[in-house]
Amino acid sequence: MKRMTILIADDEAEIADLVELHLAREGYRCIKATTGLEAVQTVQSQTVDLAILDIMMPGMDGYEVTRQIRETSAMPIIFLSAKTSDLDKITGLVIGADDYMTKPFNPMELVARVNAQLRRALHFNQQSGGSAAPVLEAGGLVIDPGRHTVTQFGHPVELTPKEFDILYLLASHPKKVFSAEHLFQSVWGEAYYESGNTVMVHIRTLRKKLGDDKNKWIKTVWGVGYTFNG
C-alpha cells in the first residue's frame, strides 16, 4: 500500500517535531515547512496526501496557503492553531479547511483526526464516478479522475472530457501500446470505422496542452498506436 505523506507547516519547531513524531509512529511520511511559501512550494513540487497548517506563519499565513492549495488540490487540510475564537474556526473551514484543532492539543487526537480525514478522502475517491479509479501521478503530472482535473507541477491543465479520458486511459497502462481503434472505442464508446483522424487530432491537441513537443508523455509507435511514457 502507498505510504501516505503529511505536510506539517508550522514555524514552531517543537510543535512540528512533536506532530512528526506521533505521525511517524503511525507509518506516515512527514514533510515539514516553516513558512507559508515553503508549504505552497512543497505541495506544488511533491505528492502530499494531507496538510496540517498553522495559521500564524511568517510571510504567508495559513489562510492564504489554503486558498492556494485549493486552486489545484482537494487534499484534506487540518488547521492546528493557537487562534481559538469561533470566528477563527469558521473562517478556516469556510476558506477550505476540513478540520480545525486548537493549541495546546492532544497529539493522539490529532493522529485520530488525520486518520479520519484520510479515510474520508479515500472513500470519496473510490465513490467518484461510481468507481475506484485512482489518482495517477508521474513526474509532476497529476491526473485526478474524481475531480476530473490534471495538474502539471501544480499548474492546472485545461482538457476537454475526451482529452482527459484519453490521457487517463493511456496513463493507467504505462508502456502499453493502444491502437487508434482501441482508443476510439474505449473513449467514444462507438464503432471505429474510419475514425483514426479523430484520435490523431485529439492526441495532437493533448500534447500541445501538456507542452509535450518532444513527446515525453505520449509517444507514437508508428504503425501500431500510442503509449504513455510515465
Number of β-strand runs: 11
User: How large is the count of helical segments?
Assistant: 8
Chain oligomer state: single chain
Instruction: Average the pLDDT over all residues and give the rounded result.
Output: 86
Strand/helix succession: EHEHEHEHEHEEEEHHHEE
N- and C-termini, Cα separation: 20 Å
CATH architectural designation of the largest domain:
3-Layer(aba) Sandwich
CATH topology of the largest domain: Rossmann fold
Overall form: elongated
Structure class = alpha/beta
Strand content: 15-25%
The CATH superfamily of the largest domain bears the name Response regulator
In CATH, what is the class of the largest domain? Alpha Beta
Show unreliable segments: none
Biggest sheet descriptor: 5 strands, parallel
Record the strand order, biggest sheet: 2-1-3-4-5
Question: How many structural domains are formed by the residues?
Answer: 2
Share of helix among residues?
Answer: 40-55%
From the alpha carbons, calculate the radius of gyration and give it in angstroms.
21 Å
